[in-house]
Design goal:
Radius of gyration: 20 Å
Strand order of the largest sheet: 3-2-1-4-5-6-11
Helix content: 25-40%
CATH superfamily of the domain at 2-170: NAD(P)-binding Rossmann-like Domain
Number of strands: 13
Largest sheet: 7 strands, parallel
Distance between the termini: 42 Å
Shape: globular
Protein backbone atom coordinates (compact mmCIF):
# COMPACT_ATOMS: atom_id res chain seq x y z
CA UNK A 1 0.00 0.00 0.00
CA UNK A 2 1.27 3.46 -0.83
CA UNK A 3 0.31 4.70 2.68
CA UNK A 4 3.09 2.57 4.16
CA UNK A 5 5.73 3.29 1.55
CA UNK A 6 9.02 4.33 3.20
CA UNK A 7 9.38 7.32 0.87
CA UNK A 8 5.92 8.71 1.61
CA UNK A 9 6.17 12.45 2.44
CA UNK A 10 9.94 12.49 1.99
CA UNK A 11 11.23 15.76 0.58
CA UNK A 12 13.20 14.78 -2.53
CA UNK A 13 15.22 17.26 -4.55
CA UNK A 14 15.88 16.27 -8.18
CA UNK A 15 18.40 18.27 -10.19
CA UNK A 16 17.85 17.88 -13.91
CA UNK A 17 14.24 16.86 -13.38
CA UNK A 18 13.33 18.37 -16.75
CA UNK A 19 15.54 15.89 -18.60
CA UNK A 20 14.65 12.41 -19.78
CA UNK A 21 15.41 10.26 -16.73
CA UNK A 22 14.64 13.21 -14.46
CA UNK A 23 11.15 13.62 -15.92
CA UNK A 24 10.40 9.97 -15.23
CA UNK A 25 11.89 10.21 -11.74
CA UNK A 26 9.77 13.23 -10.84
CA UNK A 27 6.61 11.45 -12.03
CA UNK A 28 7.49 8.21 -10.23
CA UNK A 29 8.37 9.82 -6.91
CA UNK A 30 5.40 12.19 -7.01
CA UNK A 31 3.11 9.19 -7.54
CA UNK A 32 4.64 7.55 -4.45
CA UNK A 33 3.56 10.51 -2.33
CA UNK A 34 6.92 12.28 -2.08
CA UNK A 35 7.27 16.05 -1.97
CA UNK A 36 9.36 16.63 -5.07
CA UNK A 37 11.27 19.71 -6.20
CA UNK A 38 12.92 19.88 -9.63
CA UNK A 39 15.84 22.28 -9.99
CA UNK A 40 16.61 22.80 -13.65
CA UNK A 41 17.42 25.64 -16.02
CA UNK A 42 15.19 23.96 -18.62
CA UNK A 43 11.39 23.97 -18.62
CA UNK A 44 9.93 20.54 -17.71
CA UNK A 45 9.22 18.26 -20.65
CA UNK A 46 6.05 17.15 -18.90
CA UNK A 47 3.91 20.27 -18.43
CA UNK A 48 2.13 18.60 -15.51
CA UNK A 49 5.38 19.10 -13.57
CA UNK A 50 5.52 22.89 -13.89
CA UNK A 51 4.34 23.39 -10.31
CA UNK A 52 7.21 21.20 -9.07
CA UNK A 53 9.89 23.11 -10.97
CA UNK A 54 12.20 25.93 -9.96
CA UNK A 55 14.29 27.63 -12.65
CA UNK A 56 17.78 27.33 -11.21
CA UNK A 57 21.20 27.42 -12.84
CA UNK A 58 23.16 24.84 -10.84
CA UNK A 59 26.41 26.30 -12.21
CA UNK A 60 25.65 29.44 -10.18
CA UNK A 61 27.01 28.35 -6.81
CA UNK A 62 25.11 30.84 -4.66
CA UNK A 63 21.80 30.35 -6.47
CA UNK A 64 22.15 26.56 -6.29
CA UNK A 65 23.08 26.58 -2.60
CA UNK A 66 20.18 28.87 -1.68
CA UNK A 67 17.70 26.64 -3.51
CA UNK A 68 18.99 23.49 -1.81
CA UNK A 69 18.90 25.01 1.67
CA UNK A 70 15.45 26.56 1.12
CA UNK A 71 13.95 23.20 0.19
CA UNK A 72 15.79 21.39 3.02
CA UNK A 73 15.50 17.91 1.44
CA UNK A 74 15.69 14.46 2.96
CA UNK A 75 17.06 13.04 -0.31
CA UNK A 76 18.88 14.54 -3.30
CA UNK A 77 19.01 12.95 -6.74
CA UNK A 78 21.65 14.82 -8.73
CA UNK A 79 20.86 14.05 -12.38
CA UNK A 80 21.53 17.43 -14.03
CA UNK A 81 24.19 17.17 -16.73
CA UNK A 82 25.29 18.06 -20.21
CA UNK A 83 25.00 14.70 -21.97
CA UNK A 84 25.95 15.28 -25.61
CA UNK A 85 29.25 14.12 -27.10
CA UNK A 86 29.81 17.11 -29.38
CA UNK A 87 32.72 18.79 -27.61
CA UNK A 88 36.09 17.23 -28.44
CA UNK A 89 38.65 19.86 -27.40
CA UNK A 90 37.94 21.53 -24.08
CA UNK A 91 36.93 19.65 -20.94
CA UNK A 92 35.73 22.89 -19.32
CA UNK A 93 32.82 22.89 -21.79
CA UNK A 94 31.44 20.06 -19.62
CA UNK A 95 32.09 21.88 -16.34
CA UNK A 96 28.39 21.65 -15.45
CA UNK A 97 29.00 17.92 -14.99
CA UNK A 98 31.50 18.34 -12.16
CA UNK A 99 31.47 21.85 -10.66
CA UNK A 100 27.87 21.55 -9.32
CA UNK A 101 28.95 18.32 -7.60
CA UNK A 102 31.38 20.42 -5.53
CA UNK A 103 28.70 23.02 -4.89
CA UNK A 104 26.20 20.38 -3.80
CA UNK A 105 28.62 18.71 -1.40
CA UNK A 106 29.39 22.10 0.17
CA UNK A 107 25.68 22.89 0.46
CA UNK A 108 24.44 19.67 2.04
CA UNK A 109 26.74 20.11 5.01
CA UNK A 110 24.23 22.73 6.16
CA UNK A 111 21.11 20.68 5.43
CA UNK A 112 19.42 19.53 8.63
CA UNK A 113 17.42 16.56 7.33
CA UNK A 114 19.54 15.08 4.56
CA UNK A 115 19.64 11.26 4.59
CA UNK A 116 21.02 10.20 1.22
CA UNK A 117 22.38 11.56 -2.07
CA UNK A 118 22.41 9.72 -5.37
CA UNK A 119 24.82 11.13 -7.94
CA UNK A 120 24.18 10.19 -11.58
CA UNK A 121 27.32 9.42 -13.55
CA UNK A 122 27.56 7.53 -16.87
CA UNK A 123 28.70 4.20 -18.27
CA UNK A 124 30.99 6.24 -20.54
CA UNK A 125 33.50 6.69 -17.72
CA UNK A 126 34.94 3.55 -19.33
CA UNK A 127 34.98 2.14 -22.84
CA UNK A 128 31.75 0.31 -23.64
CA UNK A 129 33.56 -2.98 -24.29
CA UNK A 130 35.51 -2.77 -21.01
CA UNK A 131 34.57 -5.02 -18.14
CA UNK A 132 35.48 -2.64 -15.33
CA UNK A 133 37.39 -4.53 -12.61
CA UNK A 134 36.41 -2.06 -9.88
CA UNK A 135 34.45 1.16 -9.31
CA UNK A 136 37.50 3.36 -9.79
CA UNK A 137 38.68 1.91 -13.08
CA UNK A 138 38.33 4.53 -15.82
CA UNK A 139 39.01 4.48 -19.56
CA UNK A 140 36.81 7.26 -20.90
CA UNK A 141 37.21 7.94 -24.63
CA UNK A 142 35.16 11.15 -24.77
CA UNK A 143 35.34 14.48 -22.95
CA UNK A 144 31.79 13.88 -21.72
CA UNK A 145 32.92 10.60 -20.14
CA UNK A 146 36.00 12.31 -18.71
CA UNK A 147 33.83 15.00 -17.12
CA UNK A 148 31.91 12.25 -15.34
CA UNK A 149 35.17 10.69 -14.19
CA UNK A 150 36.12 14.04 -12.64
CA UNK A 151 32.73 14.20 -10.90
CA UNK A 152 33.12 10.69 -9.48
CA UNK A 153 36.61 11.49 -8.23
CA UNK A 154 35.29 14.59 -6.45
CA UNK A 155 32.63 12.48 -4.72
CA UNK A 156 35.06 9.77 -3.66
CA UNK A 157 37.73 12.23 -2.49
CA UNK A 158 35.20 14.00 -0.24
CA UNK A 159 33.71 10.82 1.19
CA UNK A 160 34.13 12.34 4.63
CA UNK A 161 31.38 14.90 3.96
CA UNK A 162 29.32 12.73 6.27
CA UNK A 163 26.19 11.90 4.27
CA UNK A 164 25.40 8.48 2.76
CA UNK A 165 25.89 8.57 -0.99
CA UNK A 166 25.56 6.32 -4.00
CA UNK A 167 26.75 6.70 -7.59
CA UNK A 168 24.59 5.34 -10.40
CA UNK A 169 25.83 4.96 -13.95
CA UNK A 170 22.91 4.86 -16.38
CA UNK A 171 23.66 2.70 -19.39
CA UNK A 172 21.61 3.12 -22.58
CA UNK A 173 18.24 4.05 -21.07
CA UNK A 174 15.17 4.40 -23.29
CA UNK A 175 11.45 5.00 -22.90
CA UNK A 176 8.83 7.78 -22.70
CA UNK A 177 10.18 11.35 -22.71
CA UNK A 178 13.48 10.27 -24.27
CA UNK A 179 15.39 12.25 -26.89
CA UNK A 180 18.56 11.74 -28.93
CA UNK A 181 19.72 9.12 -29.77
CA UNK A 182 17.16 6.50 -28.74
CA UNK A 183 14.08 8.40 -29.84
CA UNK A 184 15.67 8.61 -33.29
CA UNK A 185 16.39 4.87 -33.09
CA UNK A 186 12.67 4.15 -32.61
CA UNK A 187 11.71 6.72 -35.27
CA UNK A 188 14.16 5.38 -37.83
CA UNK A 189 12.74 1.89 -37.39
CA UNK A 190 9.19 3.23 -37.79
CA UNK A 191 10.09 4.99 -41.03
CA UNK A 192 11.76 1.89 -42.47
CA UNK A 193 15.25 3.41 -42.59
CA UNK A 194 16.88 1.09 -40.05
CA UNK A 195 18.84 -2.04 -40.98
CA UNK A 196 20.25 -4.69 -38.73
CA UNK A 197 24.00 -4.84 -39.36
CA UNK A 198 25.99 -7.94 -40.25
CA UNK A 199 25.73 -11.44 -38.85
CA UNK A 200 26.95 -10.75 -35.31
CA UNK A 201 24.41 -11.18 -32.51
CA UNK A 202 25.31 -8.17 -30.40
CA UNK A 203 24.17 -8.20 -26.77
CA UNK A 204 23.12 -4.92 -25.16
CA UNK A 205 22.48 -4.37 -21.46
CA UNK A 206 20.12 -1.48 -22.07
CA UNK A 207 17.43 -0.34 -19.67
CA UNK A 208 13.80 0.69 -19.91
CA UNK A 209 13.33 3.93 -17.99
CA UNK A 210 10.45 2.49 -15.95
CA UNK A 211 12.86 -0.12 -14.61
CA UNK A 212 15.58 2.50 -14.00
CA UNK A 213 13.27 4.66 -11.85
CA UNK A 214 12.21 1.55 -9.94
CA UNK A 215 15.87 0.66 -9.34
CA UNK A 216 16.48 4.14 -7.94
CA UNK A 217 13.44 3.79 -5.67
CA UNK A 218 14.82 0.49 -4.37
CA UNK A 219 18.28 2.00 -3.76
CA UNK A 220 16.61 4.76 -1.72
CA UNK A 221 14.78 2.23 0.46
CA UNK A 222 17.57 -0.37 0.83
CA UNK A 223 19.55 -0.90 4.04
CA UNK A 224 22.23 1.77 4.13
CA UNK A 225 25.10 -0.71 4.43
CA UNK A 226 24.17 -2.19 1.04
CA UNK A 227 24.23 1.08 -0.91
CA UNK A 228 26.42 3.67 0.88
CA UNK A 229 29.58 4.40 -1.11
CA UNK A 230 28.55 1.94 -3.81
CA UNK A 231 28.46 2.37 -7.58
CA UNK A 232 25.69 0.72 -9.60
CA UNK A 233 25.08 0.54 -13.33
CA UNK A 234 21.42 1.14 -14.20
CA UNK A 235 20.16 -1.31 -16.81
CA UNK A 236 17.75 -4.18 -17.22
CA UNK A 237 19.25 -7.28 -15.66
CA UNK A 238 18.95 -9.44 -18.80
CA UNK A 239 20.77 -8.20 -21.92
CA UNK A 240 18.80 -7.96 -25.16
CA UNK A 241 19.89 -9.24 -28.55
CA UNK A 242 20.06 -6.02 -30.58
CA UNK A 243 18.60 -7.60 -33.72
CA UNK A 244 15.72 -9.16 -31.78
CA UNK A 245 15.12 -5.89 -29.95
CA UNK A 246 15.02 -3.84 -33.16
CA UNK A 247 12.76 -6.41 -34.82
CA UNK A 248 10.39 -6.28 -31.84
CA UNK A 249 10.17 -2.48 -32.20
CA UNK A 250 9.55 -2.83 -35.95
CA UNK A 251 6.84 -5.42 -35.40
CA UNK A 252 5.09 -3.18 -32.86
CA UNK A 253 5.26 -0.21 -35.24
CA UNK A 254 4.59 -1.81 -38.59
CA UNK A 255 4.45 -5.60 -38.15
CA UNK A 256 7.59 -5.88 -40.33
CA UNK A 257 10.86 -7.77 -40.03
CA UNK A 258 13.98 -5.64 -40.55
CA UNK A 259 16.45 -6.31 -43.40
CA UNK A 260 20.14 -6.99 -42.71
CA UNK A 261 22.87 -4.70 -44.08
CA UNK A 262 26.32 -6.28 -44.61
CA UNK A 263 28.90 -4.85 -42.25
CA UNK A 264 31.21 -3.58 -45.02
CA UNK A 265 28.43 -1.44 -46.46
CA UNK A 266 27.60 -0.03 -43.02
CA UNK A 267 31.29 0.77 -42.52
CA UNK A 268 31.38 2.63 -45.83
CA UNK A 269 28.39 4.72 -44.72
CA UNK A 270 30.12 5.36 -41.36
CA UNK A 271 33.27 6.66 -43.07
CA UNK A 272 31.09 8.95 -45.20
CA UNK A 273 29.38 10.12 -42.00
CA UNK A 274 32.75 11.03 -40.50
CA UNK A 275 33.54 13.07 -43.60
CA UNK A 276 30.20 14.85 -43.41
CA UNK A 277 30.87 15.64 -39.74
CA UNK A 278 34.20 17.28 -40.60
CA UNK A 279 32.32 19.35 -43.19
CA UNK A 280 29.93 20.71 -40.55
CA UNK A 281 27.05 18.23 -40.27
CA UNK A 282 26.83 17.88 -36.49
CA UNK A 283 24.81 14.67 -36.36
CA UNK A 284 25.09 12.42 -39.44
CA UNK A 285 23.07 9.17 -39.28
CA UNK A 286 26.12 6.93 -38.97
CA UNK A 287 29.76 7.49 -38.01
CA UNK A 288 32.54 5.04 -37.17
CA UNK A 289 32.13 5.92 -33.48
CA UNK A 290 28.39 5.18 -33.65
CA UNK A 291 28.93 2.00 -35.70
CA UNK A 292 31.48 0.77 -33.16
CA UNK A 293 28.94 1.30 -30.38
CA UNK A 294 26.23 -0.50 -32.36
CA UNK A 295 28.25 -3.67 -32.96
CA UNK A 296 30.01 -3.76 -29.55
CA UNK A 297 28.54 -5.81 -26.74
CA UNK A 298 27.42 -3.78 -23.72
CA UNK A 299 27.49 -6.08 -20.73
CA UNK A 300 27.85 -4.85 -17.15
CA UNK A 301 27.97 -6.75 -13.88
CA UNK A 302 24.66 -5.94 -12.21
CA UNK A 303 24.64 -8.72 -9.63
CA UNK A 304 25.02 -6.38 -6.64
CA UNK A 305 22.18 -4.14 -7.85
CA UNK A 306 19.97 -7.16 -8.56
CA UNK A 307 20.38 -8.23 -4.93
CA UNK A 308 19.15 -4.79 -3.82
CA UNK A 309 16.30 -4.49 -6.32
CA UNK A 310 14.93 -7.97 -7.04
CA UNK A 311 12.56 -8.47 -9.96
CA UNK A 312 11.99 -5.56 -12.32
CA UNK A 313 8.44 -4.39 -13.15
CA UNK A 314 8.80 -4.29 -16.97
CA UNK A 315 9.92 -6.75 -19.62
CA UNK A 316 11.55 -5.30 -22.77
CA UNK A 317 8.37 -5.97 -24.75
CA UNK A 318 6.24 -4.15 -22.16
CA UNK A 319 8.68 -1.25 -22.33
CA UNK A 320 8.52 -1.17 -26.13
CA UNK A 321 4.71 -1.12 -26.09
CA UNK A 322 4.60 1.66 -23.49
CA UNK A 323 7.20 3.72 -25.36
CA UNK A 324 5.50 3.44 -28.73
CA UNK A 325 2.12 4.22 -27.18
CA UNK A 326 3.65 7.38 -25.67
CA UNK A 327 5.15 8.35 -29.03
CA UNK A 328 1.82 7.86 -30.78
CA UNK A 329 -0.26 9.76 -28.24
CA UNK A 330 2.08 12.42 -26.89
CA UNK A 331 4.45 13.17 -29.77
CA UNK A 332 3.14 13.96 -33.27
CA UNK A 333 4.65 11.52 -35.76
CA UNK A 334 5.97 12.89 -39.01
Amino acid sequence: MINSHPLLNKRILVTGGSGFIGTNLVAHLHALGCTVKNLDIATPRNKEHLSLWENIDICNENQFKEAVLAFDPHIILHFAARTDLQETRNLSEYSENYLPVKYLIHSVKQCKKIEHIIFASSQLVALIEDQTPNDEYYSASTLYGTSKVVAEQIIRSTNCFGIPWTIVRPTSIWGPWFGTPYKEFFETIRKGFYFNIGSKNTKKQWGFVGNATYQIEKILTAPMETIHGKTFYLADFSPVNLKDFANAISKEWNNKHLPILPYWIAYTFAVAGDMLKTMGWSNPPLTRFRLHNIVSNEIQNLSSLEKVVGLLPYTPMQGIKETINWMRTSHPLQ
